[in-house]
Design goal:
The protein contains four helices and eleven strands; from the N terminus they run αββββββαββαβββα. The protein has helices spanning 2-16, 80-96, 112-122, 172-187; strands at residues 21-22, 29-30, 35-38, 51-53, 59-61, 70-75, 101-102, 104-107, 128-131, 151-155, 161-166. The chain is 30% helix and 20% strand. A hairpin with a 5-residue loop joins β10 and β11.
Length: 200
Amino acid sequence: MRTALAAVLGCLLLLTGCSSLEGTGDKGFVTGDGTVRVVEAVDRGDPVDLRGEDLDGNPIDLADYRGKPVVVPVWGSWCGPCRAEAPDVVAAAEEIGDGAQFVGLNLRDQSTTSSQAFVRRFDVPYPSVFSPDGKAMLQFRGTIGPNSIPSFVVLDAEGRVAASILGPLPSTQTLVDLVSDVSAESASPGPGAGEQTTDG
């Protein structure tokens, strides 16, 4: 009877898919449905203060990239959806090019060995902050939850949260379009700027 009940519960977990806790061992995570949220400029909070070490042990600080949008993909090498979406994320980073800086946030990998293997396997072209305890996610509270893996945050040129995607990347174009919109903000002239193009 217990075996049958366990099988039924297992099937229910499989059916709930994205809303269930998944992972390996104690690495529970919640995968969202790819919902995109845009934050209007007037509603954005303070710049995100995220610093740490990359997968090679070098210091990394998001403040160093102010002046252009920053895309933060949240991932773990142990996360199945992260592996599935990796080619699309890499394609987005390559298409966007110098239009934004990508800085990954690598969570809950207990050593950089598996993280670095992930980077090599998918030819990831950008650095990642290594946060095995997941505490780096606290910088994004109110935007994405502590177990929201995978997810994405787009910061504006001032380092403020401008948009987020909760869950796997819906498509390469989704991320490209989000970054394009955020980039256009800083490229747009201020009020009245277009009125001084002639000498009267």
